[in-house]
Each structure stands twice: as C-alpha cells, then as structure tokens.
Design brief:
Layout: E1 2-11, E2 14-20, E3 24-30, H1 36-48, E4 67-76, E5 78-87, E6 90-95, E7 98-100, E8 112-115, H2 127-141, H3 143-164, H4 170-209, E9 216-221, H5 229-242, H6 244-250, E10 261-266, E11 269-270, H7 271-274, H8 277-299, E12 304-308, H9 316-326, E13 331-336, E14 347-352, E15 355-358
Parallel strand pairs: 3-13, 3-14, 8-12, 12-13
Antiparallel strand pairs: 1-2, 1-4, 4-5, 5-6, 6-7, 9-10, 10-11, 14-15
Bound molecules: adenosine-5'-triphosphate and magnesium ion (MG).
Amino acid sequence: MRITKIEASGIRNYRSLNISFNKGINALYGRNGSGKTNIVEIIDYVTIGKSFKADSDEELINFEEEFAKVKIEYDRKQKNEIKIILYGEGKKIFKNDVELKKLSLLPGNLIDILFTPQDVFLFKDSPSIRRRLIDVTLSSIDKQYLVELSNYKRLLKDRNTVLKGELFDEKYLQIITEQMTESEFYIYSKRKWLIDKINNLITGIYRRLDEENNELFIKYNPFIQEENKEKYVFEALKKYNETKETDLKRKSTTDGIHREDIETLLNEREISLFGSQGQNRMVCLALKFSLYEIVKSEIGEDPILILDDVLSELDVIHQEKLIKYLENVEQTFITCTELNEKLKNYSTYEIVDGTVIRR
Ligand SMILES: Nc1ncnc2c1ncn2[C@@H]1O[C@H](COP(=O)(O)OP(=O)(O)OP(=O)(O)O)[C@@H](O)[C@H]1O
Ligand SMILES: [Mg+2]
C-alpha cells in the first residue's frame, strides 16, 4: 500500500499541510523542532486513531486552534481515503466519506510498521512495551486476536475485582478463571506463531544491516507452554490454583498471559544487557523489519514503513546498509536532521517550521 497525499490543518505545528508522496523512500529532513516527527505521528495516528507520543488527542490540536483535520489518501489495490476530525472532546473518523462509528473499525485499513527513537529502549523497557508491540502487530493481521485480548483484559479486571472484594465468591472466581484460560490459549498460540516466524527471519535481516556472522534469537517466556488446548487449560488452571493464595493476599492476579515477556539474544547474550546503543537500534530495526515481512505476507500487501530519526546513531557504513535495505520496501518515510548523500537520490522534503517544501 502507499500513501499518495496528506492534507491537514490545525494539527501540531502545521496550520495547513498539503503534500503528495511517492513510492519508495520519502526522506523528510530539517532542523530540530521543525516538525518531522509531527508528520510521521500524523501518519501513524491515522492507522489506529491513537498517537504514539500523546496521551490525549487534544495534544495534537494546534495551540491556536479549536480543532484539527487530517485526510490521508492511499492506494491499496484501489484508491481510499481516511479522514479524521479532532475536537477537544472527541473525534469523528471517515473512510471514503462514510463515518466509522467505532474506533475499532479503523485499524487494518492503513497499516504501518513504525520505528521511533524511543524504540532503542525497547529491550531495556518494561515487558509491557514488548507485549504491546506483539499485540499491536497481531491485532493488525488478526481481528480475532484483538477480540480475545480485549476479552481477557475484561476478565482479568473482573477477577481482580473479585480478589479485592470484601464478599469473596469462590465459585465466581473459578468461572472467571476458566473463561480467562480459553482466551489465553488463543493469545498464547498466536504469540508463539509470531515469535517462531520472527526467528525464521531475524538473523538474515540483521546480517544485512550488520556483520554476516551475527546470530539473533527471540526467546518467548510464556505463562504455559502447551500446544494442545485441553492440556493448556488444565495446566493453566493448575497454576492459577497454586497462585490463588498469593493472588488473594496481593488482591491481584500474579501470573497469566498479561505477564509474559520475550528475551532478545544477540550471539546468545541478552541485547539489553550487553548490546551497544547502536546494536540495540539495529536489533530493534531487524525485529521491526521481520514484523514488516510477516505482516506483508499475511495481508498480501506491503505495509507503510516509518523510520523516525534512525540514522543519528548509526555510522556511515550502517546508514548505507540500512538505506540499501529500504530499496525493496514499497514506501518508506524516513526523517533525519541532515540529508545523507545516499538519500539525495530519492524523494526529499525539507521541513522548515511547520511547512514542507518538496526538493
Ligand atoms: N499542539 C501543538 N501546536 C503547535 N505546535 C506544536 C504542538 N505540539 C508540538 N508543537 C511543536 O512542534 C515542534 C516539534 O516538532 P517535532 O517533534 O516534529 O520536531 P522534529 O522535527 O521531529 O525535531 P527533532 O529533530 O528534534 O526530533 C515543537 O516546536 C513544538 O513546539
Ligand atoms: Mg523528531
């Protein structure tokens, strides 16, 4: 898929924006604070209706404006457009001029893989950040995953309420726990599927970005490791039974798929402990590119690739390897403060204080 045009007004530092984009690499360059991240934030916002930077939509509205408007035209076998109007207290979303009444109808239309500077901490950050990456990726290719995950989260909340309750209801706790294990099996199976797929790809991708002799492995630490559903449910219930006393004392659910995590090993060593900053960045890129390939093969189309400020920590050789890698991607948005010599061969846009100038 490919974004052909963005029209926006009153969003971040853009009073008005109207810009066409091309196939292949689109390089956005400009000084610190000029508005490069704001552009990629706008694109990513339109994919799921939530900003990767802001806690509330209100932050996106220009300081001087009451509301913001963004329209993205994109080709996905046919021409489409998504329009979002943000008011202080809510938003309206339209696809091809038809209103999408629920936010959950938005994901899956325009699909991107996003890399931001914060991702350099992906492996050092708390497990919830890594789970989120896996959950967002699976949700974009499997609607049922989102359903099971929401179901699980709702049940988990109910279970914790029961654990906190003054009138403890043993029977109700058992019913909720049994229902949770059903969703957990689905979520576990899909997470395992994704991580196996990543492992098939990630070393090959990493070697294209760095040295040939490197080996990468993602180790999944699941709540329960069991491929057969009945056995899984049996083992999960056994575990919940074992942790029941602790759960009651803590008034919350100690274990479950909401606590799962992955380890990322570069040459058998955990990257967050032993990797350099540049290696953390490249391993994260290799992980995101693996997800890109998996999503692509699942949906039968190229997602949009967004790389915000990735070049700054890479030396010239690694920058060139990365740019070479991008040659096979249908459409990339890459931001940088200085235009790398190699990027000059592609579509370039200079950003100056909230205006975009095609170069
Ligand atoms: N709601 C808003 N209204 C107006 N301006 C805003 C709003 N939110 C952020 N800005 C401005 O946008 C600018 C930051 O833009 P952005 O983060 O896109 O910069 P950048 O080009 O990515 O910079 P860097 O190279 O440092 O990453 C800041 O000057 C900030 O004041
Ligand atoms: Mg930025």
